[in-house]
Amino acid sequence: GAVVSQHPSRVICKSGTSVKIECRSLDFQATTMFWYRQFPKQSLMLMATSNEGSKATYEQGVEKDKFLINHASLTLSTLTVTSAHPEDSSFYICSARALLGNYEQYFGPGTRLTVT
Amino acid sequence: DQQVKQNSPSLSVQEGRISILNCDYTNSMFDYFLWYKKYPAEGPTFLISISSIKDKNEDGRFTVFLNKSAKHLSLHIVPSQPGDSAVYFCAAIRSYNTDKLIFGTGTRLQVFP
After folding, report:
1. How far is B21 from chain A (nearest CA, A)?
2. How confident is the model at residue A100 (pLDDT cuts 50, 70, 90)?
3. Which of A2, A46, A104 comes nearest B34 by C-beta?
């Protein structure tokens, strides 16, 4: 149980275009989903927290107009990187916390974004 | 300000021996701690957690110890297996205030035959 999927696993896009990443909890309902970013050889940095049906809460320094988050249902959250630039190239990982459970977050496999 | 620290970036252990991964934190308000394992280009996998009301939690080969007075926790893996080779992250949370995980910087464990 507690499987989280992400799609796509890898995407290459041109500078200035937008990219959407989907995060789904496959076998449980998630009240809260999280989006992280990981740079090479660094820890996971939380970008934003999203609760179903409400606006996402962004961490300090994360541009909400650039990283659009939608959490339309208890099993789906999307992250859209708008007007992507090469510096947005990174590994993006989502996680989900179960509706009923402890504080464990279950992570997706990640999405490697490369902006050329 | 790194609130959760893993001071050893890497650890090498022989198969069958014990692996001990350490984690220190600075915020005394953290009350729940988790360990995750991560392979390259994959998301972290939850391993084990511990509440601040406990000082030990065990699950199979994995045991987490918490020393609140020292603000220190450790993950013991015994016996270590080659498949345990990965990066291990500890994470902490202030459960009554937010469900935001604060991650450490990770320790790369290599288990050799």
Report:
1. 16
2. low
3. A104
